[in-house]
Specification:
Layout (H helix, E strand, L loop, with lengths): L1 E8 L4 H13 L5 E6 L3 H5 L6 H6 L8 E5 L11 E5 L6 H7 L9 E6 L3 E5 L6 H14 L9 E8 L2
Antiparallel strand pairs: 1-7, 2-3, 2-7, 3-4, 4-6, 5-6
C-alpha cells in the first residue's frame, strides 16, 4: 500500500479529484482517500483536544472534520463507492446540513448519521467525482467553525500501486 499526500484548495479540488478518478477507474475496490483541512499552527492551537479517556467516553467525533471516500467494485460481489464525514457536532448532522441548504444528494443512500462515528453514504455508480468532493468539502465546512472559506486542504491517498 502506498500513501500519496495531495494538497489542494476548496476553490480547486482538481488534484484530489484526479486521484479519486484513478482509484475508481481501477475498479478493483482497493484503496481509500482521507482528507480534511490543513490547519495552520494558529488554527491547530485553537482545536480543543481530548484526553485518551475523554475520546473513549465522548459521544462526539473529532473537532476537526475528516472525509473519507472509498471506491466501488463491480463484478460478482459488487460494492458501491462510499463517503463518510467524521465531525464533532453531535447527532443528526444531516438535519443540520439540510437546514443550511446542503442536503444529501437525492441519489445517495444514507447508511449512517451517528454522533461519534459521523455520516456515511453510498454513492450511485454514476456519481460525479467533482460534485462528490465539493459536497464533502462544504459539509465539513458547515460542520466545523474552525474551517475558513479560503482554506488549504490536504489528502492522504491510499492505493495498492
Amino acid at each position: 500500500m502506498t500513501v500519496d499526500v495531495v494538497e489542494f484548495t476548496r476553490a480547486d479540488p482538481a488534484p484530489l479529484v484526479e486521484h479519486l478518478e484513478r482509484l475508481a477507474d481501477a475498479n478493483d475496490g482497493n484503496g481509500w482517500i482521507n482528507f480534511g483541512p490543513a490547519l495552520s499552527a494558529e488554527e491547530f492551537s485553537a482545536v480543543p483536544h481530548k484526553s485518551g479517556l475523554g475520546k473513549w467516553f465522548s459521544g462526539r467525533g473529532p473537532a476537526v472534520p475528516m472525509a473519507t471516500w472509498t471506491p466501488g467494485l463491480d463484478g460478482a460481489r459488487p460494492r458501491a463507492a462510499q463517503v463518510g464525514v467524521e465531525h464533532g457536532t453531535g447527532p443528526n448532522a444531516l438535519d443540520r446540513l439540510e437546514e443550511v441548504g446542503h442536503r444529501l444528494p437525492g441519489d445517495w443512500l444514507k447508511k449512517q448519521d451517528h454522533a461519534k462515528h459521523g455520516i456515511v453514504a453510498e454513492l450511485p455508480p454514476a456519481a460525479d467525482p467533482m460534485s462528490t468532493v465539493q459536497w464533502l468539502l462544504r459539509a465539513m465546512a458547515e460542520l466545523s467553525p474552525l474551517i475558513s472559506t479560503g482554506d488549504e486542504w490536504i489528502a492522504e491517498v491510499h492505493s495498492a500501486d
